[in-house]
Input
Amino acid sequence: MATGEVTKGRSGGLLESARASSWQTRIAVAVTALLLVLLFVQAVRDPAQFFSQLVIGVTNGAIIALVALGYTLVYGIIELINFAHGDNFMIGSFVGLTVLAGTFAGIGLFSPITGDSGAFLKVVGVLLALVVAMAVCGFVNVAIERVAYKPLRNSPRLAVLITAIGMSFILQNLGLIWKGPAQVAFPELVSSANILPTDAVVFRWKDLFVLGMTVPLLLGLSYFVRNTRQGKAMRAVAQDKEAASMVGINVNRTISITFLLGGILAGASGVMFGLFNGITVFNVGFFQGLYAFTAAVLGGIGNLTGAVVGGFLIGIISSMADQYIGVEWTSIVIFSVLVLVLVFRPRGLLGDRSAVQGGGS
Output
C-alpha cells in the first residue's frame, strides 16, 4: 500500500511538472517546426541556392566549432569563461599573415608567399602559418593563465571574470597597434573555384580546405581527451581537483595543458578564417568569440561534443539568416537563439561538462 502511494505520488509529481512546463515545450516545438518548414520551403523553391548556403554554413561552423572548443575546454576544467580566447584567435590570424608576408619587425626573412607563388610554396606557406600560429597562440594562452588567472584561482569568480575581460582588451589593443584599425588582406593561397562540375551548387576548394583541416583537429582532440593519460588527468581534474591531486595528478600542469590546447585550436582557426574569408582585422576576435561562446552555450558549456554541434548550428543559422533574412539581422537571430536555449534548456542541447567529466545529461 505504501509502495503504491509512493508510485502514485511520483506519477502525480511528474504530471504536475509536465503541466507546469508544457507551455514552454509547446512554444519551443512550435518555433522549431516553423523554422524547419520555412527552410524546407526555401529548399524546394531553390535547392541549389539552399545547398550552397548550407555548405557555407557548415564551413563557417567548422571554424566557430574550433574556437568554441577552446571556451568549453577551459570551462570544463576550472569553470572559467576565458573571454580573451576570441582575441587570441585574432592573434592567430595576425601571426599567420605575418608568416606568409615573410617579414617580422621590419626584417625580411624570406620572399612573401602570395597567390602567384607556386603550388608547393603555397602548401608550405599554409602549413608553416598554421604551425607557427598554433604554437604562438598556445604559448599566449598558457602565459595568460599563469600571469592573470592562476593567482586568482581561489578568488571570487567576479575577480577572475573581470580579469578575463581585461586580458581580452589587452590582446585586442595589441592587435590594433600591430596591424592598425583597417582590415588586412590575406593572400589567396586556396582557390575559390568550384570543385563540383556544375555551378548550381557551389563547393569550393576553400570549403574543402577548412573541413579537411578541422576534422583531424576535432578527432585528434577527442582522442587526446578520451584515450591518453593526460586526457584522463584532465577529466579527473574537472571532476574533483582535490581528489585528483591526492592521487598524484599535477593539477597546475593539467590546467596549463588545457589552456595550451585551447590556444592551439584558436591559432589554427585564426589562420583558417583569414585564408577562407581573405581578410582579418583587430576586432575580429570579439565577434567570432561571441559567436563561439554562443555555440558553446548552445551545445552545453563544458561539453566537447556540444561545442562542435553548437558551432556547426551557429554557422548554418548565420548562413541561412544572411541569405533569407538579411545580413543586418544575422546577429539578432543568433543571439535570439541563445536566449531561447537559455530559457528553455539552460544546460544546452547536450548538457554541460559531460564530455570532460565523463557524465552529464
